[in-house]
Specification:
This protein is of the alpha/beta class and 372 residues long. It is 44% helix and 18% strand. The protein starts with 12 loop residues before the first strand and ends with a helix. The structure holds nicotinamide-adenine-dinucleotide and glycine (GLY). The site of nicotinamide-adenine-dinucleotide has 29 residues, from helix 2, helix 4, helix 5, helix 6 and helix 10.
Length: 372
């Protein structure tokens, strides 16, 4: 790990996303759900709506609202749980609720939950009365290391993942690491996919560290998880600060996502978790990188081993043929005109965007990739 992996993180630490007048802090530590003062200091006005889902509400909604200072007008909205609800209809429920209580442009939306809630609430905030403030309180590992940072918001379309959306930055990200204690282990593994991604694309030392500590991470060792979250957020913040709207380097954060989004859309949103689809997709990207002669067979095998050690799939769904992948990959947002652009591994710890993959090599890669 290139950033001081040996030091024990303080109870709470703060990173920053440097985006000029839209810069914001990321606070990381246990107990932030119960610290309303951190949230209150970033509100636009007195009107606050906390949006969550029924699963997360049971654990954290009352705690979060109880911690808010007196004098605020606090409303709550509990949506149904699940990726299948990450739709325009789901976001419309947020707008309906805001209008029903007469909230105006000084309102702040708070996203309490995983990436589904965060993406929907962020998009609702981006559009409501042409844009209101929002705050991310991510409660899954995946949302703590990835989706709550960087301002990508949006919803799925039946034909493609995250096809409708906006860039809209939160005012603060409050990562309560203690919320991971209630997260199911399958969801923890899904989050580890995005953590492994940072090692593969940007930081070989971090990948070494993850390999060594995988058992402890899966065993919910709080200190190890805090370090993994800190390093992941630091890498993401650095990349987003360079390229907020993905004109260049930010595309590298999509390693495995072109294949993975195809799996999610084809299998029906929610059948494969986002992190699971990304994990299989990263291995497909590594496989293609090997076929192009960029990484050795042992590097490909190393990628397979770490994904497997995280409890993630190393095969694609047996239902999906080559054309099932290609049809959905053609809709990917990274594509320019009709050229398919893929994030591949130029080397371990170093990703690149490639738009000249020979069609027959890509088809061979997909066809020969193991199925489950
Ligand atoms: P999710 O939001 O569906 O949460 C996973 C499950 O965990 C849900 O059932 C949720 O209710 C439950 N949960 C959440 N916190 C919990 C807790 N502390 N204890 C117990 N259960 C808890 O899924 P996710 O993996 O967090 O996010 C996936 C979504 O994020 C996808 O839609 C993906 O496209 C999106 N995403 C967005 C970005 C971005 O940059 N905006 C990046 C990566 C992923
Ligand atoms: N998760 C990819 C990005 O934020 O760009």
């Amino acid at each position: 790990m290139s950033q001081d992996a040996s030091s024990v993180p303080a109870a709470m630490l703060t990173l920053g996303v440097a985006l000029g007048d839209r810069s914001y802090p990321i606070h990381i530590g246990p107990g932030l759900v119960d610290d309303g003062s951190k949230l209150a200091s970033h509100l636009a006005g007195r009107q606050v709506m906390v949006v969550t889902n029924d699963t997360v509400a049971e654990h954290y909604l009352a705690r979060l609202t109880a911690s808010l200072p007196q004098g605020l007008i606090v409303e709550t909205l509990v949506l149904p749980d699940g990726e299948a609800h990450k739709s325009l209809e789901g976001v419309a429920k947020i707008w309906d609720a805001l209008l029903a209580v007469g909230f105006n442009r000084s309102a702040t939306l708070v996203a309490l939950g995983g990436g589904v809630i965060g993406d929907m609430v962020g998009f609702a905030a981006a559009c409501y009365q042409r844009g209101i403030a929002f705050i991310q309180v991510p409660t899954t590992l995946l949302s703590q290391v990835d989706s709550s940072v960087g301002g990508k918001t949006g919803v799925n379309h039946p034909l493609g993942k995250n096809m409708i959306g906006a860039f809209w930055q939160p005012r603060v990200v409050l990562i309560d690491t203690a919320t991971l204690a209630t997260l199911p282990s399958r969801e923890l593994s899904a989050g580890l996919a995005e953590v492994i991604k940072y090692g593969l694309i940007h930081d070989l030392g971090f990948l070494d560290w993850l390999e060594a500590e995988m058992a402890g991470l899966r065993g919910l060792d709080a200190e190890l998880l805090a370090r993994a979250i800190e390093r992941s957020c630091a890498i993401k913040a650095e990349i987003v600060a360079q390229d907020e709207t993905e004109q260049g380097v930010r595309a590298l954060l999509n390693l495995g996502h072109t294949f993975g989004h195809a799996i999610e859309a084809y299998m029906g949103y929610g059948a494969w978790l986002h992190g699971e689809a990304v994990a299989a997709g990263m291995l497909m990207a590594a496989d293609l990188s090997h076929r192009l002669g960029w990484i050795e067979a042992d590097a490909l095998e190393r990628t397979r081993r770490i994904i497997q050690a995280a409890g993630l799939p190393v095969a694609a769904p047996k239902e999906m043929g080559v054309e099932d992948f290609l049809a959905r990959m053609r809709l990917d947002k990274k594509n320019l005109d009709s050229r398919l652009r893929l994030v591949l591994l130029a080397d371990m710890g170093n990703a690149c965007v490639h738009d000249e993959t020979p069609r027959d090599l890509l088809e061979e890669c997909i066809a020969q990739f193991p199925r489950c």
